[in-house]
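Contributing: when you submit paired examples, paste them exactly as shown. First protein:
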Amino acid sequence: MKPLVYYCRWQGASLRLRGRDDTAVWGQFVFTENGEERLQTFHFNLKTWQLTLTEADGEKTIQLDEMGTIV
């Protein structure tokens, strides 16, 4: 889960976890912009470090490295 925590730091977001099992964690990133919260739903695969983000136009999957940066 370490890459996910680093990713949050680099993006300036907080984690709001909603669930966890042996293979993944999921929840929301919380971004504070101009005093208001913006939420982004995510699903993070703990084995492959793939992060799936839910966006207005569908899902987007990105690959993270051990430091939480996009590969």
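Second protein:
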Amino acid sequence: MTNIRVIFTSLIAGLLCITVHAQTEELIAEVYKDSNITVRAGVINLENRIVHFGEVLPLVVRVTYNSSEVRLQEMDADFFTASWTEQMGVYLLDTQSTTLTGASDSIQEQRDVYRFQILACPEGAVLCKGSRRYEIPEFTLQYQIIDEAGNELSAESVQFSTWPTDIMIASVIPLGEEGELNTFPTYFPTGAFPNPLTGVSYRQPSAGLIAGGLFLLLGGIFMSPFSFFKRKGFAVTEKTRWEEVLENLKSGDIGAEDQYLDALRKCLVWYCVDTLKIDPYYWLKHEEEVSGEVHKSTGEYAEVKSLFIDLLHSPSGEGDVLLERLTGVIADAR
């Protein structure tokens, strides 16, 4: 009885897997067909949802052919990147290929899945306005007609488009009226620090607490021998956050290069926001998005902008040079 239950459960699970697989495959449209091959291709799991930057999306390509008459090209990562390059904002993560045999051993279906992410604006733009529409390019598939011995008789090349033909990426952060990025304080009102803790307000404080507080306050003032005679040289100035990071950089305690470059970027951004009162990310905007305002990217801020752009690229092996440039722009501003 137990064996029958196990067999029955296995059959039900297998039928469910086949059903789910069939439903998923039905969403992939046939995009090309000739006397030798049939191609189905599409980006799946896009129905009834909003797609954002960085989400992993699967492009599925299924090719059905007679393996005794047709030899397909290698459909590896190069097949994907040859048509959909990183310059178009798309980055390939990995590929997976499986071969399925049909009713006849010679009829095969090759199924390739390309998992990718959209991480940049179309055509390599620095800043995108509003929603982003990415057109999926045509893919080129090459195959050979072979004889019974496997010798090539002819070479064929076909182009096909996937379904859907484009992907819309929604904005993650709110933009300005003209589709431009807002200033740094708009998104980080506390300057990237956590929000202050809320306190409890007592509307009717105890008279004893008030008297005790005044006693401690006055007592502390009169008991301090330097309360009214502090000299200017003894004044303690609290370091700003960018000064603390700068001291840490100069101390040489940061060994890893990625952490070192991150600390350089953090120091410069905080210096711009806290001391210069400017938003360095303002410099990433397109010319047409400035709306006639005066650029803070020339004159006295030219070197600061140049250093900021260089740090965004995380140049390898230039940590000491970048630190020297950072200390230089800070010294010049003083």
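If you have annotations for the second protein, write them as plain sentences, like these:
The chain has two domains: 27-169, 173-193+232-334.
The helical segments are 2-26, 77-81, 184-187, 207-223, 241-251, 257-276, 302-312, 319-333.
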